[in-house]
Amino acid sequence: MSFADENVDEDNPYLREPPTDFEPVDALSPEEAREQVALLREAIREHDRRYYVENDPIIADRTYDALFARLQELEDAFDLSHPDSPTRSVGGEPIEAFETVEHVAPMLSIDQSGEADDVREFDERVRREVGAVDYVCEPKFDGVSMEFVYEDGRLERAVTRGDGREGDDVTRNARTIGSVPQRLHGDHPDFLAVRGEVYMPKDAFQAYNRERIERGEDPFANPRNATAGTIRQLDPSVVAERPLEVFFFDVLEASDLEASHSAELERFPEWGLRVTDHVEIAESIADAIAYRDRMLEVRDDLNYEIDGVVIKVDDREAREELGRTARHDRYAFAYKFPARAEVTPIVDVAVQVGRTGRLTPVALLEPVDVGGVTVSRASLHNPEEIAEKNVDVGDTVRVQRAGDVIPYVEEVVEKGAENEPESHYELPDHCPVCDSPVERDGPIAFCTGGLACDAQLRRSIEYYASDDGLDLEGLGEQSVRQLVDAGLLESVADLYELDGDDLTELEGWGEKSAENVRSEIEDSREPPLADFLSALGIPHVGPTTARELAREFGSFEAVREAAENDPDQLEGVDDVGETVAAQIHDFFTSEANAAAVDDLLEHVSPQASDLEAGGDALEGLTFVFTGSLSGVTRSEAQETVEADGANATSSVSGNTDYLVVGENPGATKRQDAEDEGVPIIDEDEFRELLAEYGIDLD
Fold first, then answer.
1. Distance between CA atoms of 528 and 471, rounded to whole angstroms?
2. What pLDDT, in 10s, does the model give residues 120-135?
3. Are residues 436 and 573 in the same domain?
4. 92 within a domain of the structure (yes/no)
5. 383 and 429 Cβ atoms separated by less than 8 Å
6. 133-185: per-residue pLDDT in tens?
7. Is 498 exposed, middle or buried (CB count within 10 Å of its CB: 0-12, 13-18, 19+)?
């Protein structure tokens, strides 16, 4: 056995055949604990290097886990934690925001094209200015580019690319990525700033998306979006749970530079920095173009996304002579691949459980371009359509977008190598979330778990709190999932039983955020009838139909009476036909739904209002509200402006005329208003504005 780092002690007992049975912690003296911690850290770093960089682990995963757990145990027991300890990879406490940090050297973009003639022009310019050169050819990773700074071999900071001059300090998140060494190995420079690409492996991305879909969450569009969304999480422990990797590919600054880029890349693995296996030296631009063509043929076989290749001048002195523009380095050029268009393989099929229990099969795809949009999932609608189109995992399919919005599988282009000609995917007999039996209603399949199914429960609560429901800020997808998982919400009505102390005990919740959510919930106890009807999540009853029902019947009791006993009355309402009337009837006559509604009515009193009242004094204006108002609820303020001709929307856009900010407002809408240049007014200014139009808010 040989070790890359000359400072690694080959006699370290945790390197070759490490023990997994350890003496009790309380049997160790502080000095013995420090010695064991030092050996464990050294060994774990070497095992990390062999696993991530060399792809040649020498111990089993369970043995590694035992070493890691022992190190954590000792650090906790003897207060021996350290910033560059391997245990920092498990994350830490959430942070409020990222600090903006200036890069040690500019992280510029690369000039690029998908045309070979443009690549040849790049070569002609290079040879004209510096003479004949060798090129280093590398894959162009489709991930998130970052700067990693090492001082005396220790990771000091990791920074997103940002605008190329400065970015966000995401060091705590980067420490959770296994292939990011906390300390360099071997004979490394005293100071080293390197550029790396953080990415999510394709197989991990598909598995992660499947989990999200089956939990009732929206999947990420592609691995790059998943990576970008993860690396900017404010909670490092969330990042630690997600499967990120990194390739290092360039030196930004160093105390000791090599003469060529290829020499630097050769040193990277010695230092513990992971490099792709697909680096080649090209003696001519023709060789570089041939490299790109070979990579195009194998890109689907790689476990990471690439969207082209990068061709770089190898000699560092020639690089400096070529210089840079304000936007990109002149020594490199990206030869892009054509986008995958419409035809792609199905990697897996996940089953999404909707708010009503409906099971929708979703094809997880190799990301493909459809009408200029990257698509990584497509609806298969129902079992009948799957059988009709003979779709199965591994098939190559053509994907289209219905109305240029919803992706769907149009046809099977080629059956998978292992699939029989008439084989097709079958929906499971039990719900993938709660394991309840699945029932069929014609071509549609339903989970029978009701609100006992976490997916249906979460979806119902999310919808109740959403923009189309009661617009309860602070209760989005992530927070609702957290509350359900913690056992604090077992029904929609449980929202009104939430205790501030219960919230602040949860990770990521402070007194301010708990107070804001409680305030939002309290303000929703007397919602406008239309908002309440929409929030219930009755199939096909959104805000518009709910408003028409409220206008027609005037009270919740009247709507419920008609739905249960005389659904024909419903058909006289605008936007309600025979099918929708039947859905409303089925909703209110369901025992489970009736019980859920009764529970809600113990806490909520829907307010009838005359939606015909008012005039058109505010016609053409659009308002958005955030926070609590004094004397009136936010819903009542929305009704007031709508009754006089204005629009009251739940999110800020360029069409918004005013954002009205009350007490304990959410930060998102204010930030959106600042970004869009929307006037922000407080409650007093809002009342003064209404008074100018002769409108009394009270």
1. 12
2. 999 999 999 999 999 9
3. no
4. no
5. no
6. 999 999 999 899 999 999 999 999 999 988 888 889 999 999 999 899 999 98
7. middle
Q: Which amino acid is at 451?
A: L
Give the separation between CA 497 and CA 265, rounded to whole angstroms. Answer: 59
Give the tokens for residue 622: 């659009």
In a domain, 89, yes or no: no
The mean-pLDDT minimum among 313-327, 580-594, 599-613 falls in 599-613
Q: What CATH number is associated with residue 634? A: 3.40.50.10190
The contacts of residue 305 (CB under 8 Å, 6+ apart) are 141, 142, 143, 199, 202, 222, 223, 224, 367
Residue 592 sits in the same domain as residue 505: yes
User: 674-684 burial, b if ≥16 CB within 10 A, otherwise e?
Assistant: eeeebebbebe
Q: Which residue has the tokens 């691949």?
A: 337
Catalytic residue among 140, 202, 312, 669: 140
Same domain, 400 and 417: yes
Which residues does 471 contact at the CB level (< 8 Å), separation at least 6? 465, 531, 634, 650
What are 222's two structure tokens? Answer: 């592609």
pTM: 0.59
Quick one: pLDDT band at residue 4, thresholds 50, 70, 90?
very low
- What total number of domains does the chain contain? 5
Q: Are residues 495 and 575 both part of a single domain?
A: yes
Residues 130 and 196 in one domain: yes
pLDDT in tens, 520-568: 899 899 998 988 998 988 877 887 788 888 888 889 999 999 999 988 8
Q: Which of 395, 422, 447 is the last residue of a domain?
A: 447
Say if strands 396-402 and 406-414 run parallel, antiparallel, or are unpaired.
antiparallel
Q: How far apart are CA 601 and CA 291, in angstroms?
A: 68
Interval 307-327: pLDDT, tens: 899 999 999 999 999 998 877
Beta-strand pair 358-370/444-447: antiparallel
Spell out a b/e string for 337-365, using b for 16 or more CB atoms within 10 Å of the CB, else e.
Answer: beebebbbbbbbbbbbbbbbbbbbbbbbb
pLDDT mean over 608-630: 74
- Return the pLDDT at 615: 60
Q: Give the residue numbers spanning the domain of 426.
A: 343-447
> Is there a single domain that holds both residue 226 and residue 351?
no
Q: What are phi and psi of 544, to 5 degrees?
A: -70, -50
Strands (E), 566-636: 622-626
Averaged pLDDT for residues 31-53 = 83
Task: Give domain status of residue 5, yes or no.
Answer: no
Is 140 labeled as catalytic in the residue annotation?
yes
In a domain, 86, yes or no: no
- Residue 628: left (phi > 0), alpha (psi -120 to 50), or beta? beta
Helix 454-465 to helix 477-485 angle, to the nearest 10 degrees? 140
Tokens representing 655 are 């069409």
First to last CA, the chain: 81
**CATH code of residue 529:** 1.10.150.20
Report yes or no: 455 and 434 within 8 Å, Cβ to Cβ. Answer: yes
Interior/surface letters 166-187, b for 16+ CB within 10 angstroms, e for the rest:
bbbbbbbbbbbbbbbbbbbbbe
427 and 482 co-located in one domain: no
Quick one: 165 and 289 in the same domain? yes
Placement of tokens 């959770």 in the chain: 176
The DSSP output letter for 50 is I
Give the torsion sign (CA, 634, 635, 638, 639): negative
Band of residue 90 on the pLDDT scale cut at 50, 70, 90: low
